[in-house]
Each structure stands twice: as structure tokens, then as C-alpha cells.
């Protein structure tokens, strides 16, 4: 394990000899604490693939001995300090932090058996992870976790068999309970192997995420990469149940898109969908009145999303066959949509029109590694942490909210097959 602060330099810097600037905003008590264990600075959790032959895809890096790494992020310099590692879970593929408690939830990723949903208590100072509980995910290749608005249920998406399961959350402890509900697709998934799936993944359903509307949490949006549709459901947060409403295309008809994720603009009534296979972002207007109608009656003929733009995430002449999109988000300032390109090996930033939400053509920034499967901003929006899956590295970039420029800091860390990054300010 590399315990240096910055592996991009040739000299290892012992943790105890660090003398890094401390933010002026830190409390007096925090200033007497070693920077690495200062709970007023963000934690960075990195999930890593530890087994390859049970995945729906083929990583090309090194198998991880420890599937979870925990770092501290210095808000002044963007440097990471490794705090601890954990090997209790095979192939954690998605991480979600509790909105009010220091609890990290994860799901494992495996196409051969029902996966695991687990909760871990996080020590905000040391980063130590203490397991709380674990349950069957009620499906294979679990790929997404969402906590509903009242924090009563965790929703989990199982990519391989396209199911969505709901897990009650204990209000007092944050512990999960056994799944209380499982939604199954109308069409049965029959893929028998990874090779079969890679050749035929758009011949059957493969849900990739479940995202609740941020306004009331009454509608659930499920991008289905296999069926090439965005499925929309009414969601009952009291019961943790979905009721099918309707589905819509993730982009212009006549081509395969493969919707992967969906995200809402923080202030505009606009929705962005990243299409994994077509390497595009689709822009939709979100109709609040239609959403209210649909939430009240899922059988009504309400159209919540109105398509209005489709923008490439790679240069015009770059072959789509050589790229698949990874994550999409809107930066904390709301000025840019940010997407990772796996194959082009870049971060694409697309300027948001402040009134319409339409996007300007992308600018591109190399991630200093291959297959940037995931990335995340720190709470300030200043630092961008990128997981380069197939070069076994995590790199830190500085993000300019005025221009959308992504500037490499020089900070790169040796992490085997990283697939997910979660940056979180601990609760004190």
C-alpha cells in the first residue's frame, strides 16, 4: 500500500512529517489536530475491484487486495492522505453516504449471484470503517443506491436482472433492514454470461440507476441501458414501492443511446441524461405540473420530460465505438455539466445556459489515466477526484467554475482498479 501523500513525486513523504497549510476557517481545536485526522476536512472513499471474472465488463488493471481506501482531502492543496483500507467486501461498485449520519452504504458487484448491500459506521477523525449490517440485494450486479427524501428507504438497482429493491432504514440507527419490496421488469433477462451480455445487452432490460426527483421525491427515474428507455415511476416513500407510469426515449429516435445516469440541475427545471453507448448528453425540460399529475395518478397521460437537445461528449470525428460514457453531474456552481469518457479518457465540461439549461459544445481534459469510470467534486466544487480504473490510479484536478477548465494538480495516487469515488464532509 502506498502511504505517501503524493505518489507523483519520487520522494515518499511520511505522514507525520507533513506540514501543510490549514484553512483559516478551521476551529481552534481542529488546529491542534493532525491534518490527516481533522474531521473538518472532507473524507474521500474509493471503491476498487478485487475480482474480475464475476463482472459484466472486463477491467484491465490490477486486482485490489483492499477493496476500499479512505483518504483525507486537504481543502487548501487538493492533496490526499491515506487513512485506512478495508478488505471485507468483494467488488464494492457503488457508495452512498447517509444524509445526516456518518454511515457509508455500499453494494457489491457480481453477475454470478445475488449481491450484498451493507452499511458501515465511519469515524469522522480516523476514517475507520465499522460494519453495521448487510443484506441480500435481491439481484445481481448491483450498480446504484439512492436514499429517499424522508430517509425511510434505500433503493438499490440490480443491473444484471434489472430489478429495483427497497430497504427500510431504521430512523434511530441508520441500519438497513431486509428488502421490503422488489420491482421486476416486464421482460425477463436471459443473458447467461459476460460474453453473451456484451454482444446482446440491448436486447433485454438492464436498469442502470434509480434517481428520485429532488423536489418532492414522488417520481423515480430509471435509465434502462438495455431497452434504451428512461422508465418513470410514481414512488411511495411510506411503503418504499414503485408504480409504473410511462417511459420515454433518452435521445433522438433512430439510434442506440444506452442511457446510464440521469441528473437534475440544482436551480433550473432541467434534466440531463448521459448516454453510455452514443457518447452524448440529452437535455430535457422538467414539467412540474405534469409531474404532480403523474405522482397523483400514474395511469394519467402526463409527459414530465420534454426532450430539447442532444450534445456529444467526445470530439466530432472520434469513433463512438472507442468510447463509453461514465458518470454525469452538474458542478456545485450549476454552471457546467461534467461527464467522464472511458476510451477517450477525458473529462468533458459543457457550459450551461443560465436561463434555458441548454449546453454549449464540450471542452475536453485528459484524466492522466485510462477508463475514468467515476469522479466526484469536493463540497466546495474546487477539487475533482477522478478514478482511472484501468491504470490503477486516482488523480486530483482543480476545477475553475468560471471557465470549466480542469487543471491537473500533479497529485496522483496508486489505487488498484478504482471504480467509484465518494467525497464527503463528515458530520460533527
Q: How far from one another are the termini?
A: 29 Å
Estimate the strand proportion: 35-45%
The biggest beta sheet reads:
4 strands, antiparallel
- What shape does the CA trace take? globular
In helices, the fraction of residues equals: under 10%
What class do helices, strands and sheet pairing give?
mainly beta
Radius of gyration over all CA atoms, rounded: 21 Å
Number of strands: 28
Total DSSP helices: 3
Mean pLDDT: 92
Spatial strand sequence of the major β-sheet: 3-2-1-28
Extract low-pLDDT stretches: 1-26
Please tell me about this protein's structure.
The protein is built from 3 helices and 28 strands. The strands form 7 sheets. A 4-stranded antiparallel sheet has the order 3-2-1-28, with no helix packed on it. A 4-stranded antiparallel sheet has the order 4-5-6-7, with no helix packed on it. It has a 4-stranded antiparallel sheet with strand order 8-9-10-11, with no helix packed on it. It starts with 27 loop residues before the first helix and ends with a strand. The longest helix has 9 residues, at 288-296. By secondary structure, the chain is mainly beta. Mean pLDDT is 92; it is low at 1-26.
Amino acid at each position: 500500500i502506498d502511504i505517501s501523500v503524493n505518489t507523483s513525486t519520487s520522494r515518499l513523504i511520511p505522514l507525520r512529517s507533513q506540514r501543510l497549510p490549514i484553512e483559516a476557517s478551521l476551529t481552534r481545536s481542529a488546529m491542534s489536530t493532525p491534518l490527516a485526522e481533522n474531521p473538518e476536512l472532507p473524507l474521500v472513499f474509493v471503491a476498487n475491484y478485487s475480482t474480475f471474472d464475476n463482472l459484466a465488463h472486463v477491467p484491465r488493471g490490477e486486482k485490489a487486495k483492499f477493496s476500499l481506501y479512505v483518504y483525507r482531502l486537504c481543502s487548501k492543496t487538493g492533496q490526499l492522505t491515506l487513512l485506512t483500507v478495508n478488505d471485507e467486501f468483494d467488488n464494492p461498485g457503488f457508495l452512498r453516504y447517509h444524509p445526516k449520519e456518518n454511515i457509508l452504504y455500499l453494494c457489491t458487484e457480481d453477475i454470478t449471484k445475488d449481491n450484498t448491500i451493507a452499511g458501515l459506521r465511519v469515524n469522522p477523525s480516523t476514517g475507520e470503517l465499522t460494519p453495521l449490517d448487510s443484506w441480500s440485494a435481491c439481484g445481481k450486479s448491483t450498480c446504484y443506491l439512492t436514499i429517499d427524501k424522508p430517509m425511510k428507504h434505500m433503493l438499490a438497482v440490480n443491473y444484471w436482472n434489472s430489478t429495483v429493491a427497497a430497504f427500510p432504514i431504521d430512523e434511530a440507527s441508520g441500519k438497513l433492514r431486509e428488502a421490503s419490496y422488489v420491482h421486476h421488469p416486464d421482460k425477463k433477462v436471459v443473458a447467461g454470461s459476460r460474453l453473451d451480455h456484451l454482444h446482446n445487452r440491448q436486447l433485454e432490460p438492464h436498469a442502470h440507476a434509480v434517481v428520485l426527483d429532488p423536489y418532492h421525491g414522488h417520481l423515480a427515474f430509471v435509465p434502462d441501458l438495455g431497452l434504451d428507455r428512461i422508465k418513470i415511476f410514481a414512488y411511495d416513500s411510506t411503503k418504499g414501492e414503485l408504480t409504473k407510469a410511462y417511459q420515454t426515449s433518452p435521445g433522438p429516435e433512430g439510434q442506440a443511446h444506452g442511457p446510464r445516469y440521469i441528473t437534475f440541475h440544482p436551480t433550473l427545471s432541467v434534466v440531463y441524461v448521459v448516454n453510455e453507448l452514443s457518447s452524448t448528453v440529452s437535455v430535457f425540460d422538467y414539467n412540474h405540473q405534469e409531474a404532480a399529475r403523474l405522482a397523483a395518478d400514474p395511469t394519467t397521460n402526463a409527459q414530465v420530460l420534454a426532450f430539447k437537445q442532444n450534445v456529444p461528449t467526445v470530439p466530432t470525428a472520434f469513433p463512438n465505438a472507442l468510447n463509453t460514457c461514465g458518470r454525469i453531474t452538474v458542478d456545485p456552481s450549476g454552471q457546467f455539466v461534467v461527464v467522464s469518457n472511458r476510451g477517450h479518457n477525458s473529462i468533458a465540461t459543457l457550459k450551461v445556459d443560465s436561463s434555458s439549461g441548454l449546453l454549449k459544445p464540450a471542452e475536453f481534459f485528459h484524466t492522466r489515466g485510462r477508463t475514468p469510470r467515476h469522479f466526484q467534486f469536493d463540497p466546495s466544487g474546487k477539487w475533482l477526484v477522478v478514478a482511472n480504473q484501468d491504470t490503477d490510479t486516482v488523480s486530483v484536478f482543480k476545477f475553475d467554475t468560471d471557465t470549466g477548465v480542469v487543471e491537473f494538480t500533479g497529485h496522483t495516487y496508486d489505487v488498484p482498479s478504482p471504480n467509484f469515488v465518494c467525497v464527503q464532509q463528515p458530520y460533527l
